[in-house]
Design brief:
Elements lengths: L4 H25 L6 H16 L3 H14 L7 H17 L3 H16 L7 H16 L3 H15 L4 H17 L3 H15 L1
Helix pairs in contact: 1-2, 2-3, 2-4, 3-4, 4-5, 5-6, 6-7, 7-8, 8-9
């Protein structure tokens, strides 16, 4: 019997979903927990479902957990994570407008807690730039990558290189070849 790589990958993601379900159940048995582990596990579980081709089920799980998150400052980043995961699932499902909406909410929620110049915000802006690229909205892609550059200054070299590569692509879309070359070179140097 031949095992295809895509089948093996789905099996692994199925196992991930099973582990997350067990983790959530165990957390519920502990009295006085805040539910933080369960929310994080729900995010991983939803992405696992998406990778198994069950995007709608993943979104349904995220919607349920998003409703459960208390609207208090200490949960802002967790809410941002769940909305980012929801954006990832919509991206997988090629529903780019909905992905963009989710990432707008992600950035808004994260912005309540962290500075726009943080590495975390940089990552969210890059995700949003990818959605704008899918929508052929070069202007907003460029703006998101520009915002991501602010947080990339404080990041590890590989992340700086990735963001520079996105910036090079964004400049290419505007036929700014010299700027694109400059960021392509920066990207290369960060990867050294």
């Amino acid at each position: 019997q031949v095992i295809r790589p895509e089948h093996a990958e789905k099996v692994e993601y199925g196992r991930l979903v099973g582990h997350m379900v067990r983790l959530i159940r165990k957390e519920r048995q502990i009295k006085g927990t805040t539910g933080l582990i369960g929310y994080e596990a729900a995010s991983h579980m939803a992405i696992g479902y998406g990778m198994c081709g069950k995007v709608k089920k993943g979104i349904k799980i995220l919607n349920r957990y998003i409703r459960l998150i208390p609207d208090t400052p200490e949960y802002n980043m967790l809410r941002a994570l769940l909305f980012a995961s929801k954006g990832d699932l919509y991206h997988m499902d090629k529903k780019f407008e909905k992905a963009s909406e989710s990432l707008n909410t992600t950035i808004m929620e994260a912005g309540k807690t962290v500075n726009e110049r943080s590495v975390i915000m940089s990552g969210y802006y890059i995700k949003h730039a990818q959605i704008y690229r899918e929508l052929y909205d070069w202007k907003n892609e460029f703006l998101c990558v520009k915002r991501a550059m602010r947080g990339a200054r404080h990041a590890a070299p590989d992340w700086k290189g990735s963001v520079c590569l996105f910036m090079a692509h964004a400049y290419q879309m505007f036929d700014e070849d010299e700027q694109a070359k400059e960021y392509m070179l920066k990207s290369y140097l960060y990867y050294q």
